[in-house]
Amino acid sequence: MTVTSSCPPSEGSSPLPTPLFSAPSTPETERDEDCFDLALAALPAVSAATAQYILVTGGLGYIGSHTALELLKAGYNVLLVDNLSNSYEEVYDRIVRAAKQHYEREGRGRQCPQAELACMDYRDSQAMRTLLATHARGSNTDEEGDAASRIPPRSNITGVIHFAAYKEVHDSLRNPLKYYQNNISGLVDFVALLDEHDIKTFIFSSSANVYGTLSATHRTLREEHCVHRPEAYYSADGQELVAVEQGCTGITNPYGRTKFFGEAILSDLAASDPSWTIIGLRYFNPVGCDASGLLAEDPRGTPSNLVPVVVKVLTGELPELSIYGDDWTTPDGTAIRDFIHVSDVARGHIAALAAAQEGRVVEPFRTFNLGTGCGHSVAEVVATMEHISHQAIPRRTADRRPGDVESCVAIADRAAVELGWKAERSLQDACRDLWNHLHAEGRLSGTAIKS
Predict the structure, then answer these.
(1) DSSP letter string over 273-306?
(2) The CATH number of the domain where 247 resides is what?
(3) Which residues carry out catalysis?
(4) Is residue 191 part of a domain?
């Protein structure tokens, strides 16, 4: 069994017992028994009859947990769903603790909103249907009471942010069906279930991987380089143009294709039913961690992304860092990426959600890049982390990996204009926050760095 649990109720909330749900049997998922013990210790939840929630799938993962924290800071109640296949239940406690610290420091008397956790697989439609039913305000019928023409119950869940996806590029090359089953089949069933409950504000976790090898011909990437139907935009000199070439070529891995197909499915859904508001956020390379030091990237298994590997080298868990290729046509020969602070990415989801709920999204389906617009090479990232930590990072050069591209940098003007969002933190900020997290966790002997 899994449970939903919550932090202390907001002012004016009504306590209710914590509901229990059945979990799917997922062989890949290592379940944390502490999650089940919460049934005895869970604090009262906000009344499902009054509170409004944002549902976050994959809410204990790296970006999901940081977004959950930013939602709480912004005043939203959150309902987190996670099957713990690549995360840990204790992250929930860290989210709540960081949110409480924020409100104690900056809340000006405001109460911390609710955070609830349901340990389940978002693909388990029966468990998800039960969960959604606990957040329904009651079903309605038409004026004549015809049960056959039942109106969907109004939900207290006013928006969904969907992170629950497998995301390792190189794992996707080895296990493509795993990615298509979870990232595509699961997505289709999930949005169909949301449609049943009339929950039609949906923020989709996409990726710059949808641009494929376009980065080889475009120094920077804008949303119009990958569209799912004709889309108007303005050039740098203010000329109105229309992107008519739909689709994208050169996606180099199954993970990227699942994100492209996911966008295409959601675009078709929004075109068929404009009552949906769907936003696809294409992030580039999230790094760093929340400045509180309580949250960070901590996947199960061996990471393949650059910064988590650097961390394992710094903590002595790995002997050295492998740099895949030093013969790219870049200034120092290493690949270039748009590294963006994860807290900026999280804030991008808040900006997208606000725009969707306030009716400021210009089309039923809209994509946005989340990046800094500034590329850094792998060698630059390593040098920055060495500078922050005052430690040398042992490294070796390895062959390029299948699926890698030379450069991938965002143009994020659309998010600035339409969402009022832009990245605020630097690569140095990300490395400093990560170093301070490692210091706070006692994983190394260095000194914390002040802002």
Answers:
(1) -TT-EEEEEEE-EEE---TTSS-----SS---SH
(2) 3.40.50.720
(3) 255
(4) yes
